[in-house]
Amino acid sequence: MARAKILYQCQSCGYASPKWLGKCPDCGEWNSFAEEESVSKLVPQNRADPVALPDIAPSTGTRHSTEIKELDRALGGGVVLGSVVLIGGDPGIGKSTLILQALKGLTKMGKVLYVSGEESPEQVKMRADRLGIMSDKIILLPETSLEGIISVAHEINPQVIVVDSIQTIFSLELSSAPGSVSQIRECATKLMFMAKKHGKPLFLIGHVTKDGAIAGPKVLEHIVDTVLYFEGDKGSSFRILRAVKNRFGAANEIGVFEMTEAGLKEVDNPSKLFLSEMPVNVPGSIVTVSIEGTRPLLVEIQALVTTSSFGVPRRTALGVDYNRLNLLIAVLDKRIGMHLGGMDVFVNVVGGLRIDEPAIDMGVIASIASSLKNRAVETGTFTFGEVGLSGEIRGINQAEARLKEAAKLGFKKGIVPASNANRKDNEGIEVIGIKNVEEALEILFF
Asked: Which of 70, 131, 200, 255 has its CA 20 to 30 A from that of 94?
């Protein structure tokens, strides 16, 4: 017998409580609890036999290309049979456009079932016409009932299934509203079981909350195999597709796209694109090299330091960690003697890219010092390195790949950690090793 039980669940993280709470003790959200009916069912399961690890045959599954290289890169090389991929992002950023373009290549596997829970068939057809996608293998299903979707999937036997979006799907077995944590968890779990059982790739498109997280992230991220986030400024045409979880490839791998009238266009050389409009001989600007997944990227970091008009100076970080910025400002103040206590400091990574790697510390410090001194960095110079609290410059990994990418774009001089400078092949770049921040700033500005 099914037993009904009333629970209160956080609609942000899925935390359950027997009583209503004003603040979620797990994620810290306020007024996020909603009453939901939890139904526990005792269903007998078939017993699985234990198998010794050496007796398990290795998987021979192959990857299938979407014919979009940047998407394949983020997926780890292509789509794996039976994998469940979650794509999240802000409304209108290009999630549906990307998946529709990918289906053009996936139709080589067979029929594709596109479940549209938000848009009408006419709206999807208009987008497909604009993208130049005309294939009778793409079967459109305007349905929001989970049971109806599974029934149609068994009838037409598609090779790929797309659900746009998972928040609109509901199960008749639950009384809660579509989009609630219990509905998302139940629908995603049953769709995952179907995909795994029949070996069919499943793509789920998810909305994000006001904080930029997929609704019910702790629930969905544990269920799916791969989580891809679409990032980008709405005022810019560039889009970053970042893999934050991938059971079949490297995490933090990114794909770079440009939004055009004909859909999303791949960017083969993101470094060149990010530096295409870089100003010359302007204070507060410098190039640094970051590693995103397996790809080295040259990005421009800009800083603006100005006298504060308020009692408390402002610190604004766009594309870099705010707390890391405050740490680096403290290092400049204590170790170098650059007093920024009465200054507003603004730091921005050009292109809408967000970088969490500590290797860009030296780039942030150099851009701040350049703006404060009002002196431009020499053209063709780049820097990277992690900065410690005592002002030392620590070595970083994959320095060779970073130098190779910089040489490819014509850079001639690199200010790098001393431990990364002792290499036989510097790709024709004048590499200067530095041990601390003071030494680096003397080379750059004196």
From this structure: 200
> Quick check: 12 and 215 in contact, CB under 8 A?
yes
Model's pTM, two decimal places?
0.81
Q: What is the pLDDT of residue 184?
A: 87
Tell me what the mean pLDDT of segment 170-196 comes to. 87
Q: Residue 418: name the closest of 445, 444, 390, 384 by CA.
A: 384
Q: What is the pLDDT of residue 293?
A: 81
Does the domain spanning 63-268 belong to CATH 3.40.50.300? yes
Tokens linked to 212: 């930029």
DSSP-derived letter for residue 271 is H
CB of 195 closer than 8 Å to CB of 202: yes
* Burial degree of 446 (CB within 10 A; 0-12, 13-18, 19+): exposed
Peptide bond into 83 cis (omega under 30): no
Q: What values do phi and psi take at 308, rounded to 5? A: -75, 140
Say if strands 79-80 and 393-394 run parallel, antiparallel, or are unpaired. Answer: unpaired
What is the model's pLDDT at position 1?
42
What lies within 8 Å, CB to CB, of 203 at 6+ separation is 85, 87, 99, 160, 161, 162, 163
The string of pLDDT tens digits covering residues 392-420 is 999 999 999 999 999 999 999 999 999 99
pLDDT at 431: 93
Q: Which CATH number fits domain 273-445: 3.30.230.10, 3.30.1380.20, 1.20.1580.10, 3.30.70.890?
A: 3.30.230.10
Q: Whole-angstrom Cα distance, residue 427 to residue 407?
A: 6
Structural contact between residues 223 and 185, judged by C-beta atoms closer than 8 angstroms: yes
One DSSP character per residue, 149-190 reads HHHHHHHH--SEEEEE-GGG-B-TT--SPTTSHHHHHHHHHH
Strand pairing category for 63-64 and 112-116: unpaired
Whether 217 has a pLDDT exceeding 60, the answer reads no
Chain centre to alpha carbon of residue 194? 27
At residue 262, what are phi and psi to the nearest 5 degrees?
A: -95, 20
Report the alpha-carbon distance of residue 196 to residue 412 in Å, rounded: 51
Span 5-9, average pLDDT: 80
Please tell me the number of Cα atoms within 13 Å of 361 on its side-chain side.
28
DSSP H helical ranges for 225-280: 270-274
Which of 34-38, 310-314, 354-358 is predicted least confidently?
Answer: 34-38
For residue range 357-387, what is the model confidence (pLDDT) as tens digits?
999 999 999 999 999 999 999 999 999 999 9
